[in-house]
Design goal:
Shape: globular
Distance between the termini: 40 Å
Number of strands: 0
Order of helices and strands: HHHHHHHHHH
Radius of gyration: 19 Å
Strand content: under 5%
Number of helices: 10
Largest sheet: none
Length: about 190
């Protein structure tokens, strides 16, 4: 159980109140567009990733294009989306858990890294800029690798800097390596 005094002290800081407002703004903005754009038709690249997942999920015969697409596409997200398909969860559920939630958490991670590298003001400014950055918003609603890879990359930076470098916690390095590998497996340029 959380200590009520700790929570009161935490809420006394205007910077922490701004963090709550930032996260509420981020969630509201993303949910608005999620419900507005969530069931849009898929793009060509989205179809490439989903086709890989569908072949696995439905035990289909591998088509002629299989080696080409699986050889040039990172496979982490098709594997995750395969699990969604196997569980008969729809495309909207995939978008929610693999795009919307990581997009929101990325804004917090940008804040946390800015806070730990500089101070809370820089963290808040960075988080606000990330929350309204149009490219980040645009890709939050596309079944592509951009948002999950960015989220995993930010986890890598957070654990490496905030936990391993700043707090000298050994597990920070291990988690940074793990999330770095996952970021690469989600999107090759994150190497």
């Amino acid at each position: 159980m959380m200590d009520k005094e700790k929570v009161k002290n935490w809420l006394n800081s205007w910077e922490n109140k701004l963090l709550i407002l930032l996260m509420l703004f981020t969630i509201t903005l993303r949910l608005y567009y999620f419900f507005k754009l969530g069931n849009q038709p898929i793009w060509w690249d989205e179809g490439d990733y989903l086709a890989i997942s569908k072949v696995w999920a439905l035990n289909m015969q591998k088509p002629e294009w299989w080696a080409h697409f699986t050889g040039m596409r990172p496979l982490l997200l098709p594997i995750i989306w395969f699990l969604f398909m196997k569980l008969h969860l729809g495309e909207l559920t995939m978008r929610f858990f693999t795009l919307l939630v990581p997009s929101i958490l990325t804004v917090y991670l940008v804040y946390a890294v800015g806070r730990d590298m500089y101070n809370k003001k820089i963290g808040l400014i960075s988080g606000l800029l990330m929350s309204i950055y149009w490219v980040h918003l645009f890709y939050t609603y596309r079944l592509l690798t951009d948002i999950p890879a960015l989220f995993l990359g930010m986890l890598t930076i957070y654990f490496f800097y905030s936990r391993y470098i700043k707090k000298r916690e050994k597990f920070g390095l291990y988690l940074a390596v793990l999330f770095g590998v996952l970021a690469f497996a989600a999107r090759f340029p994150h190497a």
